[in-house]
UniProtKB/TrEMBL annotation:
Membrane-traversing stretches: none
A GO term from the CC aspect: respiratory chain complex I
An example Gene Ontology biological process: mitochondrial respiratory chain complex I assembly
Family classification: Belongs to the complex I NDUFA12 subunit family.
Extent of Low complexity compositional bias: 157-171
Encoding gene (name): Ndufaf2
A Pfam family this chain is assigned to: NDUFA12
Native species: Pterocles burchelli
Designated name of the protein: NDUF2 factor
């Protein structure tokens, strides 16, 4: 029986390529596989291939963080061996510690800045309120101009003069 099974597996491998091997599963439920390096019937050598069967099968549902960094490095062949659960947990704890340290340093920095502002050692940043752009025709005015606006369909060169100009009153 085992010889028949071996023969069938060898025939399948020659015709269809080798079967995928389950390498591991992450804490999110994604399954990671590899196809070993093999030779096709034509003699072409196919390199090892690594891939994931994700729990979210739609590509648009993927977001950063859906795959652990260690598994992503293995998929992209940045590392030879697949990660262990212990390694993933150790790195996750390290990331959490770093987030907490960053939060603590940020709070400490804000307190130091507030102290410096209070003691007038450092000038506080100026808070400006932008109401418009200087190139806008109504910049600095309370309301936009009520002057007639052209739609470009009725414009005649030389037909409009700005209000208050002497040349329109001389005509």
């Amino acid at each position: 029986m085992s010889r028949l099974r071996q023969a069938l597996q060898a025939l399948r491998a020659r015709l269809l390529g080798p079967a995928k091997e389950l390498v591991g599963t992450d804490q999110l439920g994604n399954k990671y596989y590899r196809l070993p390096r093999h030779q096709t019937r034509a003699g072409q050598i196919i390199p090892e291939r690594r891939f994931v069967e994700a729990i979210n099968r739609q590509p648009y549902q993927y977001e950063i963080g859906h795959f652990p960094t260690e598994w992503e490095a293995w998929i992209r062949k940045k590392r030879d061996d697949p990660p262990t659960i212990e390694e993933i947990l150790k790195n996750e704890n390290y990331r959490q510690e770093m987030k907490q340290k960053i939060k603590d340093v940020s709070e400490k920095d804000k307190l130091l800045q507030a102290k410096e502002y209070k003691e007038r050692l450092v000038a506080e940043p100026v808070r400006t309120h932008v109401k418009g752009h200087a190139s806008a025709p109504h910049y600095g005015k309370k309301e936009p101009s009520r002057d007639p606006m052209s739609t470009a369909n009725t414009f005649q060169p030389g037909s409009w003069m700005p209000p208050g100009s002497g040349s329109s009153q001389n005509k």
